[in-house]
Amino acid sequence: MTGPALVFVDNDEIGRVAGVDTSRVAIDVTNSAMLTRVGIGQLVAIKGATQAEFLIAMADRVTRSLREELPNPEGGDPGALTVSPADHMQAFVIGTYRTVDGDKADTFKRGADSFPQIDRDCFVIDGGNLQRFMGILGAGFAEEERLKLGTFVADRSAEAIASGDKFFQRHAAILGSTGSGKSWAVALILERAAKLKYPNLIVFDMHGEYEPLADKSKGGFAQRFRIAGPGDLAAPKDDTLFLPYWLLNRDEMLSMILDRSDQNAPNQASRFTLHVRDLKGMTLDASGKSKVKETFTVDSPIPYAISDLVERLRTDNITKGIGKSGPVKGEWEDKLTRFISRLESKLDDRRYGFMFSPPPAALDYEWLAKQIVKLLRADSGSGIKIIDFSEVPADVLPVVTGTLARLLYDVQFWMNADARTPITLLCDEAHLYLPVKDDADAVQRQALWSFERIAKEGRKYGFSLLVVSQRPSDVSRTILSQCNNFLALRARFESWSMI
Q1: pTM listed for this prediction
Q2: What 3 state SS string does 396-464 have?
Q3: In a domain, 52, yes or no
Q4: Are residues 227 and 303 in the same domain?
Q5: CATH classification of the domain holding 389
């Protein structure tokens, strides 16, 4: 390109700035003939503070009204009124284009360094100007950094290119109603992300719909894991994942088995906490981890046998106390019956086998490190991993997703900064486990705490979220408010009032 991308003549001018506020620019249209070619989404260039600068805006309202005027006193019928059109546009500023910016030419950046001034000339960007302008978007990205999102509706010949590094290292959301093409959009983005230099994405697949992306015989590029189902307990395969109960922190575990309305709930929670901490301490003693034992807590992910926990609780529940005249009712006697019953029902249900019936190797202290390496490693094989949650019962889905996300984030958090590799967690069907806080039950709140922590702090540690949902009004506002980029398909926001 030998000249500037935007070159305007008088016929390209559509009007002048008539009003400015913090988010909108009002344009008084003087070229009524051109208004008929302008629609919602049309790009408009507004003359900036210097000759080399234009503010780029996108039209979001176009109006025409008729007004009556008195006749010219020097001619015409003195009793007749004339009708003339009054045309107006409204647009919001999306960025700044400069023909020269230091030692660079034809640059565009998001956001505006200054607001438009009243009476500045406004031009419609179309034809050759539009093609040249679209061409400079993403032109400065290296080939291995270019992430093609699609083509521009305003100019189908121009590709919409984003920086893959910047897109995935910031929180983002893909929103759209049922049938709008979210799954296809996600699959396409993953396919193109796989061609980036260092892709590292973990996909939470709720319905197993992204399985074809891991089929190498059909050009698949991802690595797929499955949360173990009832049929995997006897002979789990290499792609099967278990999330043992001891990975859950105290509150996550209690949210599944403790009935807060039970009058003995405080006693049940107290005995559970005491025994779990003791059992984890015994594991550290047996493994020779004296240094770890000095700082561990009941929430630390340390293996222990669930059968030992049940045995201790049963003992508490039947142990008599010693009085002056003989045995008396024990301090915990009969207070843990319902708690033990709820826990045993989970242990006997094969649907929860991925949590309560892990393989014997899962009780080894080093087991967790091997699983984390399997999920986070991106130096060999595919950097895109798909985790299929389709066989996880709906009532514990929030806890399972939240636990896994928390573990991955904690590893990234404590890792040496020089050794960190940025990770993106793609949360498909996010409304199932990331609801609005006011609507969340005790189980869902545990997942929300983990994901909201990632949304608020994750970018500092190279951990980002890509939220996908067909019901944005049901997704946590805290999480969506932290998203820098939105890919909105056909979305129905209903009562959603965050933006």
Answers
A1: 0.82
A2: HHHHHHHHHHHHHHHHHHHCCHHHCCCEEEEECCHHHCCECHHHCCHHHHHHHHHHHHHHHHHHHHCEE
A3: yes
A4: no
A5: 3.40.50.300
Q: Which residues pair with 468 in a beta bridge?
A: 174
Q: H helices then E strands: how many in the chain? A: 14, 19
Q: What is the pLDDT of residue 80?
A: 61
Q: What is the pLDDT of residue 84?
A: 66
Question: How many domains does one find in the chain?
Answer: 3
pLDDT tens-digit map of 170-181: 999 999 888 888
Do 486 and 379 share a structural domain?
Answer: yes
Cβ atoms of 55 and 98 within 8 Å: the answer is: no
**Same domain for 48 and 103:** yes
Domain termination residue (choose one: 326, 357, 388):
357
Residues 349 and 406 in one domain: no
pLDDT band at 497 (very low <50, low <70, confident <90, very high): very low
Token duo for residue 141:
């990205």
Judge whether 323 lies within some domain: yes
* Residue 156: inside a domain: no
Same-domain status, 347 and 252 = yes
Q: Could you report the per-residue pLDDT of 367-420, keeping only the tens digit for each?
A: 999 998 888 876 555 789 999 999 999 989 999 999 999 999 999 998 888 888
More confident residue, 169 or 75: 169
Return mean pLDDT, the chain: 87
Claim to verify: residue 368 and residue 432 sit in the same structural domain: yes
Q: Is residue 146 part of a domain?
A: no
E strands present in 329-393: 384-388
pLDDT, tens digit, for every residue of 104-133? 888 888 888 888 889 999 999 888 888 888
Phi, psi of 293 (to 5 degrees): -65, -25
Other beta carbons within 10 angstroms of residue 212's beta carbon come to 12
DSSP string, 228-294: --GGGSSS--TTEE---GGGS-HHHHHHHH--TTSTTHHHHHHHHHHHHHHHHHHHHHHHT-HHHHT
Which of 85, 120, 136 terminates a domain? The answer is 136
d(CA 124, CA 283): 70
* Residue 477 and residue 458 in one domain: yes
Do 453 and 388 reside in the same domain of the chain? Answer: yes
**Range of the structural domain that residue 41 is part of:** 10-136
Query: Which comes out higher in pLDDT, residue 39 or 423?
Result: 423
Q: What is the pLDDT of residue 328?
A: 83
The Cα–Cα gap between 155 and 133 comes to 10
Q: How far apart are CA 449 and CA 402, in angstroms?
A: 8
Give the containing element (helix H, strand E) for 211: none
